[in-house]
Amino acid sequence: MTPESLVGETQDLFSLPDVVRRINQLIDAPDTRSADLAEVIRFDPGLSARLLRVVNSALYARPQPIETVTQAINLIGHQALRDLVMATCMVDLFKGLPPDWIDMDRFWFQAVACGIGAGDIASRAGLSQSERLFMTGLLHSLGRLIFVTQCPNDYLDVLRLIEQESLESSVAEQRVFGFDYTRLSAELLKAWGFPESIWMAIAQVSMPAQATQYRVESEILHVAILIADRLMLNHVGGTVPTVDRLAEESQALAEYLSLDPEALDELPDAIALQVMDVFGILMPEASLIF
């Protein structure tokens, strides 16, 4: 079994929805107007409603409400629109997985927190790719969903190792499968045609200092995962072994990006409201209580 073969088995089960493909085509075209994008989105009432809820949420903190899809697109820009469409469609694409396989509420809470955390770090560092890093963080753990849908019995062995030996999930996955969820996530996004800067950053996140390309993105994603785990522990509960490394890894990243270390120390609290707001929009029926 390899990441490539496992992703190949999911092509019919998990493929990008038509609305995502159409939005991507329009955004990649140089002469696309906001009105063109709005016309596509209006055919999906659920997506339209979520777009308006997001732009009126704490993520953007607008003094005046945004009332139309075109206004929303003009406010957030085409790249952020792509992120939102992808986030919404990913939630729908993987909806309905058996709860005894994976808790999807916790999964998406962590993913949203990681995406917002990665984007925030990039913004604080003055980097131009904050929107791309939001998407990288949001989608970095999709491989875990492939594991549990395609190899549910083997993944039970992963869960046993995590519980019995207090291993991190990626270590347990390496032991059972020979590769972890980040390698699988990267392969899935590569197969879907995502930019190299996204899937390579994910593929290298377990050893970011050794990244041959996109090291900055991998380093930021690495710490964003720890920040998301801290938020998970603070607001959802449970045991997250990786959070003990957050202070040390944040210090190293602050030095690498020439940031004030306190800027990263405060980040879990700084983004908490945004995370809960966006999570509530993407997962309106979630059972998590804050």
From TrEMBL:
Gene3D superfamilies in UniProt: Hypothetical protein af1432
InterPro entries assigned to the protein according to its UniProt record, in alphabetical order: HDOD, RNase_Y/CdgJ
Residue ranges annotated for the HDOD domain, each copy included: 13-208
Alphabetical list of SUPFAM superfamilies matching this protein: HD-domain/PDEase-like
Transmembrane segments: none
Stated name of the protein: HDOD domain-containing protein
Record lineage: Bacteria, Pseudomonadati, Pseudomonadota, Gammaproteobacteria, Chromatiales
